[in-house]
Design goal:
Helix 2 packs across helix 14 and helix 11 crosses helix 13. Helix content is about 45%, strand content about 15%. With about 350 residues, it is of the alpha/beta class.
Length: about 350
C-alpha cells in the first residue's frame, strides 16, 4: 500500500507544527509498513495538510482521478485569531475558506476531540476523525547528556533554574505572559525558541519583545536536535498558549520528561489532567505560583505519567490508529492490491489493527 503525502508549500510551513505533522505522517506510516511517497500516483490516497490554493487544486485533481483525499484539519478559526496583524478581522473569512478546503476531503483528520467538535460545528459534512499528530519517542526522550549539551551551549550551571517555551512570536502563544513571568522571576533564566518576522505581528508583541528583561533569551529558530536538548536540560516547559488544536511541542516536552505547565484550555480535556501529566493555571498569578512551586520542588514531578502519555502517541501507536481510519474508509480494500502478491499477510492486514 502506498500513500502520497502532498508536500507542496512545505517551505512555507516547515518551521510550524503543520510541517512537523507532515514529517510525522511519513514516520508513522513507515512504522506500520506503508510506503509514503511524494510522487503523483493514480491509485494511492493522498494526504493534504495545508489550505493554500495549490492544495485545493491538488484535491480537485485527485478527486477527478478517483483518488481518496484525506484532509488534515490543523487549523481552526479559533487558533487563527490572535496570531498575525489583521487575523481577528479576517478570522470569519478564514473559517469559510478552511471549511471549503476540508470539505474537499473524503475524510478529515484533526488532532483532538476538541478540534473535531469545532470542525463539525462549522458544518463539515464529511467524516471527521480525531487522531493525534503523534510524537517520535525514539528521538524525543529523556537524556542527561542532551541536557548537559543545552546548558553548556548557553553557559548555564547545574544550579541555574531554567524555564523554556516554544512558538511563534504571536499573542495566542502566550508570549506576553511569558515575558511577564520572566520579569517577576529575575533569578530564573528564561528561553523562548522560535520566531516570527516582527513586521507580521502587532505592536503589542513587538513591545513585549523590546521590553523583555535581561534574564529572558529569545533563541530564535533552532534545529530539532537543539530543541530536544533544551527540553532535556530545562527545569520547566511553560506553554501558555491560549488556543491550540493539539500542541506538538507539548508532546515533545512530555516525551523528554521535563515538567510541563500549560494554560487550562479546552483542547487538553480528556488527555491531560492537572496534577497528573502536567500542571495547569489560567491567569498570570497562577502561572507565577505554579512556576515557583515547580522550581522549588514543592510540587512533585509527573515524569512517569507524562512519559506514558507520550508513548501512547508514539509513531507506531499513531500509525496503527491511522490504519484503522483507512480501514473504516475502505482505503485498504481499494488500494490493497498495490501491496503486491508477494507481500506478507501481516503487512496487508495492518489496517485491521
Amino acid at each position: 500500500m502506498r500513500v502520497q503525502i502532498y508536500s507542496g508549500s512545505m517551505r512555507l510551513v516547515a518551521k510550524s507544527g503543520v510541517g512537523q505533522a507532515m514529517l510525522h505522517q511519513k514516520k508513522m506510516l513507515g512504522c506500520v509498513g506503508i510506503e509514503a511517497t511524494d510522487s503523483w500516483d493514480n491509485q494511492a490516497p493522498i494526504h493534504l495538510n495545508t489550505v493554500f490554493p495549490d492544495a485545493v487544486l491538488t484535491a480537485l485533481a485527485a478527486k477527478i482521478r478517483g483518488r481518496k483525499v484525506i484532509y488534515y484539519g490543523h487549523s481552526t478559526e479559533e487558533d487563527f485569531k490572535g496570531s498575525f496583524i489583521g487575523s481577528n478581522l479576517l478570522a470569519p473569512l478564514f473559517k469559510r475558506w478552511i471549511t471549503f478546503c476540508y470539505g474537499l476531503g473524503d475524510a478529515v483528520i484533526t488532532p483532538t476531540e476538541y478540534s473535531r467538535r469545532l470542525l463539525i460545528g462549522y458544518g463539515i459534512k464529511k467524516p471527521v476523525y480525531s487522531l493525534t499528530n503523534g510524537i517520535d519517542t525514539s528521538f524525543f526522550a529523556p537524556s542527561e547528556e542532551a541536557g548537559r549539551r543545552f546548558r553548556s551551549r548557553y553557559g548555564l550551571s547545574d544550579r541555574d533554574k531554567v524555564v523554556i517555551s516554544v512558538g511563534h512570536f504571536i499573542q495566542r502563544k502566550g508570549l506576553p505572559e511569558f515575558v511577564e513571568l520572566a520579569r517577576k522571576m529575575p533569578e530564573v533564566r528564561f528561553f523562548w525558541f522560535g520566531e516570527t518576522p516582527l513586521s507580521m505581528v502587532p505592536e503589542t508583541i513587538r513591545e513585549a519583545i523590546r521590553s523583555a528583561p535581561v534574564n529572558l533569551t529569545f533563541a530564535g529558530f533552532v534545529s530539532q536536535g537543539e530543541l530536544r536538548d533544551a527540553y532535556c536540560g530545562a527545569d520547566l516547559f511553560a506553554f501558555l498558549s491560549q488556543e491550540e488544536t493539539e500542541g506538538i511541542v507539548v508532546l515533545e516536552a512530555l516525551a523528554c520528561g521535563v515538567p510541563v505547565l500549560v494554560r487550562d484550555i479546552p483542547v487538553y480535556s480528556g488527555w491531560l489532567r492537572d496534577g497528573e501529566q502536567v500542571y495547569m493555571a489560567d491567569d498570570q498569578d497562577g502561572f507565577y505560583r505554579r512556576t515557583a512551586d515547580i522550581l522549588s520542588g514543592k510540587l512533585p514531578p509527573l515524569t512517569e505519567a507524562a512519559l506514558r502519555t507520550a508513548e501512547s502517541r508514539s509513531m507506531a501507536a499513531t500509525g496503527r490508529k491511522l490504519c484503522g481510519i483507512y480501514h473504516q474508509l475502505g482505503i485498504d480494500e481499494e488500494v490493497g492490491q498495490t501491496v503486491g502478491a508477494g507481500s506478507s499477510p501481516e503487512r496487508k492486514s495492518c489496517c485491521l489493527l
